[in-house]
Design goal:
The protein has 225 residues and is an all-alpha fold. The protein has helices at 6-13, 15-22, 25-31, 37-64, 68-84, 86-95, 100-104, 110-125, 128-148, 153-156, 159-167, 171-190, 193-219.
Length: 225
């Protein structure tokens, strides 16, 4: 009997969080094409700032890698992330009336700041395995979101939501997720019990932040003072 992959165990541990993510009204609103566009615009701007720091974390992981092959893989992931997702958001932003300058000058909302600092803390203080485990929920939940949005007449007639969904169910994106999972599994297989537990803790915390990010966008969260 083949042993479960470490990433599969992480996914099972976070199942209760992920089900809440998939059922969040922001995402069901996209799937039904009923989400108010102002909430989606808010999300696009916040996600853009988030992805910039996400990319930085990949760069830090590459700097910590001990072999050239892993450095090359992480560099490929960095390049793919800044093209597949960031360029998609820039294109959506332009058609939504959000200039590239506005995207780049967006002030991160409180939850966004907390999530990005979680990533950066792990990237600076943790191992490559910890970094990959902390980043995996973002990539993997988006794949699940893309797969679950089946579409319908209203959705198929909404170009912004359909284009966004299609990005996360594309072959290129699924391949990226497989790379993140493979790196996480590989480093877990080489790690001791304490590092594997830290990887699990980072994965769960990132999963919670994923839920909070959708909640932040749905409520158009701002600083209270």
């Amino acid at each position: 009997m083949t042993a479960k992959r470490f990433s599969e165990n992480l996914r099972e541990d976070a199942a209760h969080i992920w089900e809440k993510i998939f059922a969040h009204p922001f995402l069901t609103g996209i799937g039904e094409a009923t989400l108010p566009l102002d909430k989606f615009k808010f999300y696009v701007k916040q996600d853009y700032t988030y992805l910039v720091d996400f990319a930085r974390c990949l760069g830090l992981a590459a700097a910590k890698a001990e072999d050239i092959e892993t450095m090359q893989t992480l560099a490929t992931l960095l390049k793919a992330g800044t093209t597949i997702e960031i360029e998609m958001l820039e294109g959506l932003g332009e058609r939504l009336g959000i200039t590239a300058e506005k995207l780049r000058n967006t002030e991160p909302a409180p939850t966004n700041v907390a999530y990005m600092r979680h990533f950066l803390y792990v990237a600076y203080s943790g191992s490559v395995g910890e970094i990959m485990a902390s980043m995996l929920p973002c990539m993997w939940t988006y794949q699940g979101i893309g797969e679950r949005m089946k579409g319908g007449p209203a959705f198929d007639g909404h170009p912004f939501y359909k284009e966004w969904r299609d990005t996360y169910r594309s072959r290129e994106y699924v391949e990226l997720v497989d790379w993140y999972r493979s790196l996480t599994d590989r480093y877990a297989s080489e790690a001791g019990p304490r590092e594997r537990e830290l990887m699990r803790e980072h994965f769960l915390l990132s999963s919670r932040y994923e839920y909070m990010f959708w909640d932040m966008a749905y409520n158009k969260e701002i600083w209270p003072v």
